[in-house]
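User: My advisor, Dr. K., asked me to get a structural model of this assembly before our group meeting. I'm new to this, so sorry if the format is off. These are the inputs:
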Amino acid sequence: DADVTQTPRNRITKTGKRIMLECSQTKGHDRMYWYRQDPGLGLRLIYYSFDVKDINKGEISDGYSVSRQAQAKFSLSLESAIPNQTALYFCATSALQGEGQETQYFGPGTRLLVL
Amino acid sequence: SQQGEEDPQALSIQEGENATMNCSYKTSINNLQWYRQNSGRGLVHLILIRSNEREKHSGRLRVTLDTSKKSSSLLITASRAADTASYFCADGAGSYQLTFGKGTKLSVIP
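Assistant: The format is fine. Below is the predicted structure of the whole assembly, which you can bring to the meeting.
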């Protein structure tokens, strides 16, 4: 089984709808991240969480919210979806290693289309 | 904001040739990492090089780091069609997050 899973894998929604993307991990990592990927723009960080009680905004948090329900679960919500939120969304996890260096482990992604 | 920037944006080579991709960054780093992404899929970590290292090898991968020039390169030797993917550098300037570049799209022609 995959260490980092995301649901759904694909989603089509309409402008104004609220949707939730879910991420679960079995790696036992404390740190979890949400990124979006747009063609030609690479990955941009939306939110990150270092533990259940610690949630931080990333580079592009406007229009998004998150919930860290447990160490293993980190959900991303779009309160009122808009077309420019159409993108590929990735969840990732990491554990603090040695001198603060981190390798991140990514889920398979959720492809979201907002009409 | 984006920090790592890969060059070239796209690269097409014949199978068996070597592929070199470059990455530049702007501020001091703790480490620099390279990731691979097959089309539409999640990123997979390839290699990490620390700021006090100059070169690192892993199989057919060779990574160099020049902190004076704020640059890194990824060399894939004896490329295979299965190496076709996008490659991203990510700098670990802090201890808590990575900043990814826009990637180099590598095509290896059989």
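One thing worth pointing out at the meeting: Chain B touches chain A at residues 1-2, 30-31, 33, 35, 40-45, 48, 50, 88, 90, 92, 94-103 (CB under 8 Å).

User: Perfect, thanks a lot.
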